[in-house]
Amino acid sequence: MQHASCTGRTTPAPPLDWMSLTEQICDKARNLGFDLVGIAPAHPVPQFSAYHSWLSHGYHGEMEYMARSDRVARRKDPNKIVPGARSVICVGLNYYPGALPHNLRHDPSRGLISNYAWGVDYHDLMRSRLQELVNFAETRIYTKTGRKIAYRVYVDTGPVLERAYAVEAGLGFIGKNTCLIHPQMGSWLFLGEILLDVELDYVSARTPRNTDVNCGSCRRCLDACPTGALIAPYVLDARRCISYLTIELKGPIPHELRPLLGNWIYGCDICQTVCPWQRFARPTRERSFYAQGTASPPSTAEGLDRISPVLSELVRMNVEAFQRQYTGTPLHRTGRHRLLRNALVALGNQRSSTTVPTLTEALADEESLVRGHAAWALGQVGGQAAQRALENVLSTERDPYARHEILAAIDALA
Ligand code: B12
Ligand code: SF4
Ligand code: SF4
Known about the structure:
Among the domains are: 16-98 and 116-214, no CATH class; 312-414, Leucine-rich Repeat Variant (Alpha Horseshoe). Helix content is 41%, strand content 10%. It contains 18 helices and ten strands. It starts with 15 loop residues before the first helix and ends with a helix. Bound molecules: cobalamin and iron/sulfur cluster (SF4) (2 copies). One iron/sulfur cluster (SF4) is lined by residues 175-177, 215, 218-221, 274-277. One iron/sulfur cluster binds at residues 175-177, 215, 218-221, 274-277.
């Protein structure tokens, strides 16, 4: 296995002890199961201006945490997070759980869930391992110097441009799909960091192995994105991205984008699946990233139903069933109502009259978001039964949003 770590120094060599400490940290990270590890100086990254421009165009949509001024300042300068920050230990963890069997991948009656979400939620898993890594470093530094260190551990949710630091640490390059790609592993990688106020032996981001490779003239991801969210190479308008629409967006999914979602109900893998660098991807050693009860490739019926659920069964799921099925996985974050919202869009896109009874039931759901999307789906399916179901609930529906959807669907059928 290739590690983008502990090679090719560009900064003046620090004292020998720190060099060996760096090597020990890298070894420990690998022993903890991380596939990639590297160290970047805790300087502002050159990509900060790209992030700034991204915000100024409003591409972050409703992700206000991306634009809060205190967060922006921290993304610009890690010293605002850890005063005196000198190093960023960056790790990558392969999450590839194998491919979905072909018949399920192409079955429109089932929903598609991004492969990063098939198993356990990566946030806690990676954070606790990074904590173990920093405990290890802290003990060694304290033994050598008697000094306590200041640090922060982040996985995804912190105010850090994770991909940019991963590049600086030599973990890979940024593709036109905006993902961090490792030339020997592809991009099915989670990232995490430790910011600390200790100057380690920085691993060069610019090792020959990683700078000689990039996307070249390829643009498969841009051409394959169903919603046109990759508006230019390296620029993603999150407001159009299926991942944002199905996971981050709290309210209704914009009408004009619903037909473009196909049967994706949680996240989207298209711009990565089409990428030629993914031919190097190998299934992860981390068993907990496989769907419960499955091996790679996923095999048991229970596991398959969880990662590729039958849509009409999913929209009948009550809160208890949702908790049973998805607690501990990333899907739990969206809550039942948003997962059902997404599934109803997928059912609308399926346009099958066999789904009318299920959609009619969903018109009585306790959540107006669900009722509204059920109405839209009935409008897409069409036919007399769908029309009758919509007209029947119009007199009793009191929620303004759901009423609006019902009226729009009736109009569409007229
Ligand atoms: C907000 C967010 C999203 C948003 C916006 C994504 C985006 N591309 O901006 C949404 C909800 C859409 C999203 C989707 C996904 N996300 Co997300 N997301 C984040 C988050 C929290 C912040 C990303 C961010 O800062 N965006 C702002 C843009 C401007 O920054 P950027 O994405 O880093 O883009 C850089 C490049 O574009 C580069 N750049 C810009 N111009 C140019 C020009 C050139 C020539 C070059 C070389 C580079 C370059 O500079 C930018 C700044 O660093 C990070 C975690 C974190 N704290 O960083 C995870 C993160 C990026 N997401 C991750 C994942 C796994 C996903 C999904 C795959 C999940 C899924 N399957 O649905 C998709 C992938 C979609 C995609 N193509 O990006 C991983 C990515 C791992 C990797 N290998 O890259 C991260 C790092 C989380 C983690 N800790 O593992 N995500
Ligand atoms: S995740 Fe899907 S919708 Fe988002 S940019 Fe990639 S292909 Fe487009
Ligand atoms: S699909 Fe092509 S353009 Fe897109 S990230 Fe992969 S190599 Fe780059």
